[in-house]
Every structure is written in structure tokens, then in C-alpha cells.
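Quick entry, no commentary yet.
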Amino acid sequence: MTQLADSPVTLDTLAPLDRAEIMSVDWAALAPDEGKRLRALGIDTGARVAIAHRGVFFGKDPIALLVGRTTIAVRRVHARAMQVVKL
């Protein structure tokens, strides 16, 4: 089965250099202070992000995201809470 280009996937499944737009965030899956911090850093519905690089050991943590001109490191569990559409 092939995946449509505009089908939502979770952010943690993207490869380095992939670009995407965040369609939704499962804020209930995150601790309240984590969600607040991510929003303050510009990670929210509608944000356009790119995967700069991923960690190399075990769970591939952390994931470095480009949000605008800022690079932000997020844990894979946080990225898994975000539904995105690849651009």
C-alpha cells in the first residue's frame, strides 16, 4: 500500500532534510510544562519544520528540528505526538 503525499504521518517518522507542516499536536500525550515549552519555541499547529538531523544511537534521539531560522532539539516521544504533512 502506498502512502499519499498529503497523508498525515508523525514527525518522528520523517528522514533528515524532510520538510513538513504540523497539522495537529496531541497535547494530552505531553506533560503540561513540555507542551508549554514547545509552544513557546514555535512548535504548534501550522508551523513549518524541517528535520535537520537525528541522533545516531538507540532510539535516534534527539531529533533536531528547524523552525524558521532556529534549531530545536526534541525527543522522539514529543515528535511522535505531532501529526505532519510532508511538503
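second:
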Amino acid sequence: MNGATPPGAMLVPGTRVRVRFDWPESRGPAHVRTPHYLRGREGVVLAHLGDFPDPSELAFGRPAPLRALYHVAFAQPVLFGAVPEEDSTLVELYGHWLEPLGQEGRMS
């Protein structure tokens, strides 16, 4: 998880992030809550929603550490191509999938 948000660190609204380009499901059974189309993409944190038990562990009946959950906005043209430039997609993502890029506060 190189570059991922360290446990206990909270991302603030406006932080630019990149979703980790990782495929844990390729290494064996996994319960992954991060959509494929977001991996490797950049967005902007809009809000910290709280800390919740990690669903990727709960799915297998294992003890689950608390993970920070965020609303992250992505510019739709970056995700889907030819759509209105001002459109965005709002997604809930766990912090261990996010790599902070800075505080610029714009979607790229």
C-alpha cells in the first residue's frame, strides 16, 4: 500500500488524491469496495464521513480495523470521456485506497 493514507491520518476537504492502482482480487479471494474504473484516477476529497470497520475484512468474518471513509469527487470527463466538463461523480472511498497529492482542491 505504498503512498496510501497512513492509519489515523485524516484527509481534509480539498485534498487532491489518487486512488491506488491495485488489484487485490488478483492475489486471491477479496472483497473489494473500490470500483475498477476509479483505480489510478485523481479526485478531490469533499468530506470525511467517519471511521468504520473495514468491510473487506468483515466480508470474511475477520476482525476489522476502523478505516476512514471519504466522499471523493471525480471529474466525469476523466472517468467517462465526452460528457459535460462541469459534471462530476461523487464516490465513498476508504482512506487506505487514497494517495494524497496536495491541497489544490480541483478535480483533474
